[in-house]
């Protein structure tokens, strides 16, 4: 295959790189367009050595050392497994930098579950897709990203990942990580209520079941008390126009932005791949018409970047 490029690529990835590719790159003898670009000085370059036995050979290790010294990012194969494409992509984003470079962003996602007894819980319909899209987008804009995920099956490569189940576990994780973060994006659907007592054993049908609930502690509010300088983004899911509720939450929760969406509309919000939101800040609201959650995430992070710049100028 002949590779024709109109412009120099932003990054080069050799995956999997055979031992002969490693040798050629290490010694500046590019063969073919990609290797020639490397030899000509195109960076950043990510090398994923072929996970075969010859990797242990001293000559191969020496070539890898040379490439490392020349500034290549090397993915060392672990337990013979090739790295996940997502992990490679995350590394490329970090190498390339971006508008959020130097920022540590904490994202919560998913939906918390509160135990009723040893087998039952009360939860919500959040799939975690919106939060994961934000985490991925923040990574691609150069940020360091931590995710606190409540009951989310998927894993996001390239981020620090903490799994939680209940609102109390989520709050504990967020309180600790918020202290090390520049921004918190609270996309998780956090239980507003939890059973007053969680029963240790399974309740039998014949016993009957009625559950009393108590309101949970507001995580955003408690994080704000401890971290007055943290940039915080909250969410507001409402039936009907979300802007008034989002404006109210901006003040009552002490957050810098609120992302509001109307969950009565079909095909957006919980579980869907699309969303339609209003990003409400101190100077007004930006409407984001129905779009993929990835695109919506981009707008949310653009607004975050704009607001942070404004805060710094104040
Ligand atoms: N949230 C939180 N702690 C809770 C409940 C919610 O930090 N115990 C966060 C959510 O993650 C979301 C925002 O607060 O970012 C709004 O959540 P929502 O449930 O809509 O708001 P509430 O404060 O519970 O108010 P209400 O249910 O009355 O609208």
Structure description:
With 314 residues, this protein is an alpha/beta fold. The protein contains 9 helices and 15 strands. The strands form 4 sheets. It has an 8-stranded mixed sheet with strand order 8-7-4-9-12-13-14-15, with helices on both faces. The chain is globular. The model has no long low-confidence stretch (mean pLDDT 91). Bound molecules: cytidine-5'-triphosphate. Cytidine-5'-triphosphate (CTP) binds next to helix 7 and strand 12. Residues 167, 186, 188, 190, 192, 216, 218-220, 234-237, 249 line the site of cytidine-5'-triphosphate.
Largest sheet: 8 strands, mixed
Structural Rg: 24 Å
> How far apart are the termini?
55 Å
Q: Please mark out the parts with pLDDT under 50 across 5 or more consecutive residues, or reply none.
A: none
Strand content: 15-25%
Number of DSSP-assigned strands: 15
* Helical stretch tally: 9
> What helical percentage do the residues reach?
25-40%
Q: What sequence of helices (H) and strands (E) makes up the elements?
A: EHHEHEHEEEHEEHEEEHEHEEEH
Bound molecules: cytidine-5'-triphosphate
- With strands numbered from the N-terminus, the spatial order across the biggest sheet is 8-7-4-9-12-13-14-15
Assign an overall shape. globular
In terms of structural class, how would the helical and strand content be classed?
A: alpha/beta
Q: Mean pLDDT score, rounded?
A: 91
